[in-house]
Structure formats: C-alpha cells, structure tokens
Amino acid sequence: MADFRRIGVLTSGGDAPGMNAVIRAVTRTALAKNIEVVGIVGGYSGLIEEKLIPLVSHSVSNIITKGGTFLYSNRCLEFKTEEGIEKAIATCQKYNIDAIVAIGGDGTFRGATELAVRGIPTIGITGTIDNDITASDYTIGFDTAMNTVIDVVDRIRDTCESHARCNVIEVMGRDCGDLTLQAGIATGAIAICIPEVPFDEQLAIDKIKSSLVKGKRGMVVLVSEGVYKIDENGKKIRYGEVLANHIQQETGVETKFARLAHIVRGGSPTLRDRLTATRMGAKAVELLLEGKSNLVVVEKDDVIDSEDIVYALTLDQMYKGRLKDGDLDRFTPEQIAKMEASCKERKDKITALYELSYNVCN
Ligand code: ADP
To answer: Is the CB of residue 76 below 6 angstroms from any atom belonging to ligand 1?
Structure first.
C-alpha cells in the first residue's frame, strides 16, 4: 500500500453537477485513511498560484446537494506550458502534496497525465455533463443535465402546444449527442439532430408536415450544439438556428429557436450523480493507496473501475475520428482491437437509440 500523507483535489474545465459530491467523497475517504486533504482552488491555476485550502470533514458538509464546484474551476493556459507544469510540481513539493485527484473532462485528464509522468501520482475522475469520455459508460453531471433539459423542454412544449408552434432547441454536449438524443426521446421531440448520425433535413420536414395533417400542434426539435453547417462565406455556423428557419419556410409553422446553453450546467445533482460521484471519489483514493497513477475512474456495466488515462484519451480520439499519425504506436494490437470494439459498441448504442427515437416520436 502506498504511503501518502497529503493529497490534493481539484476541479478543472467545464463544471458539472456532482463535482462537489466527488470532492466530499475524496476528502472523507482520505481522512478515514488518515490522509490529509488540500483543496486546490480554481483548477490547475490554483496549483500554479499556490491557492490551497485544507479540507477537513466539516469543510465538505452540505455540499453534496450543490451544483457547480466550491473549489471553483478554470481553464488554465499556463498549465499547458512546461514552465506552468514545473510551477505546479514545485507547489506539490513545497506543500508536501503526494498525489492529486483531478475532476473534469478530457482536457483535465491531459493535464493530469502531465503531473503523473513527472512523478506526482494522479487519478482523473470524469466530471462533465457531455458524457463524452468513451472509456466510461457514464460521466458525472450527465443525469442532472438531462433532467434539466427535459424540464425546460417540457415547458417550451407546453407553450408550443398552446400556440401551435414549433421550437428548435439547441442543447450542449460538444461533439457528443448523448444529452440531446436521450433528452429528445424523453420529451417526444419530433426530430433530433446529433453529430454522430447523419441528419436528413427533408425527412424531418416531411415528418413535421404529416404530423400537422394529423392535427399535431406543439412540436419540439432538439439539435446538438456540435452540429455545424458552412454558410455562404465559408464560416462554420451552428445548425440549430438554420434548421429553425428552414422548418418555418418549408412548413409554414411559426418556428422559434432557443439555446439552452449554460442553464444545463447548473443545479442540484440528481441521485444518480450524487451516488456515482461518491463511488468514483472513493475509488480514486483507493487506487492511489494501491500505488496506482495516471488512471481515470470509469463506469463500465455498473462497475466502478479504472482505465489508463492515455488509453482513454486515445480511445476518444479514435471515436471522434481525430487520430493523428503515431497516436496508436504505443499500443499493442490487442489494445487497438479493444479500442475499435469500444468505438463500435458506442456507435451501435447511439444508432439504435436514434432509430428508436425516429419511430416513437411523431
Ligand atoms: P475539460 O477538462 O472539461 O475537457 P479543458 O479542455 O478546458 O476542459 O481542460 C481543462 C484544463 O486542463 C485546461 O484549462 C488546462 O489547464 C488543462 N489542460 C488541457 N489540455 C492540457 C494539456 N495538453 N496539457 C496540460 N494541461 C492541459
């Protein structure tokens, strides 16, 4: 068992409901093993600027219910430089921080691996509403975000029904359509557009027209923020607003556009997020005590497990079709085959859900 006196915990990148619950679980699990905990304020910039606060059990009282992150989050460009990383390592040495738990998304894990390879044992935990870490079935914040989306979309649908309108609603999720797709199914969206599945605009418009003939009044269409079109000037523009205009022109139905944006990031975490956060936070401390480093805590088939960070990051690149020359060189043929199988499994899952949505929402 590794011998730690003090570990640091930080939240970085985009915040997600449930991050506080992770901080609480990390703190209390470590304290129960007689390990001191320091909170690093403002992500990696807190490590560079020595913004540290000691965490005792009551420091994390009553934060399990709160959205956001009480340690604050930040996008720290300096940490992407060698100088910034050296400053962060110097802070760890100066304050005897023996290991770090970093909660965030893929950017945060890139940062974590920089610490790990320089001798600071580091474990990542997936905290992002996007559910876009391919190595994990689930990322903390996703369930809360989905519930927020369905709450807001239900309200919009009520008013669409009253006024016989359509509303195109853009939902966060970057390149990942999970949030849009699952919330779209749950709200009965007549059409759903996500980055992973080609969208047939004409088919969607025909579906709206035939529903109108059958007497449908209120309609909602959900579009992921990660779907773009190129305009006449060659500029990338988000597709949601474009689609709203096309629907209005083609169907004659008054069509509004709404961007949910950061509404989806806040709020009190659901049971699913509080529980997963607690399980993952405890797991991160256990992994450190087992002498492990450079891992990300993941959920696979309801088991809280871990995966090598570099493997997880490369798997994401493969899933998104962004592998660069040499990215796979460090992996064995068996690992590459496992990555390909994971990508296929995820793509198949999302395609099956998409097909389901097409048949049940009309
Ligand atoms: P997320 O973790 O939500 O994906 P970001 O991509 O903004 O969010 O990453 C969060 C932070 O992680 C960045 O602001 C930076 O401090 C750190 N980070 C991201 N990429 C790297 C990298 N390649 N090397 C070192 N640190 C990184």
So the answer is: yes
pLDDT in tens, the chain (362 residues): 777 899 999 999 999 999 999 999 999 999 999 999 999 999 999 999 999 999 999 999 999 999 999 999 988 999 999 999 999 999 999 999 999 999 999 999 999 999 999 999 999 999 999 999 999 999 999 999 999 999 999 999 999 999 999 999 999 999 999 999 999 999 999 999 999 999 999 999 999 999 999 999 999 999 999 999 988 899 999 999 999 999 999 999 999 999 999 999 999 999 999 999 999 999 999 999 999 999 999 999 999 999 999 999 999 999 999 999 999 999 999 999 999 999 999 999 999 999 998 888 76
How many angstroms separate the alpha carbon of residue 223 from the centre of ligand 1? 26
Protein residue with its CA nearest to atom 7 in ligand 1? 13
Token reading at 74: 């930040």
Ramachandran sector of residue 164 (left: φ over 0; alpha: ψ -120 to 50; beta: rest): left
**47, 80, 82, 117: residue to mutate for ligand 1 pocket, most atoms within 8 A of CB:** 80
Helix (H) or strand (E) holding 110: helix 106-117
Mutate which of 110, 122, 136 for ligand 1? The one with the most ligand atoms within 8 Å of its CB, which is 110
Residue among 100, 218, 232 nearest 156 (CA): 218
From residue 64, how far is each of 15, 19, 67, 150, 268 by CA, in Å?
A: 15, 9, 8, 22, 8
Q: Is 124 near ligand 1, meaning CB less than 6 Å away?
A: no
Measured in Å, residue 42 CA sits from the centre of ligand 1 at 12
For 79, the token pair is 């940490």
Domains for the chain: give ranges and CATH numbers. Answer: 6-141+269-309 (3.40.50.450), 145-262 (3.40.50.460)
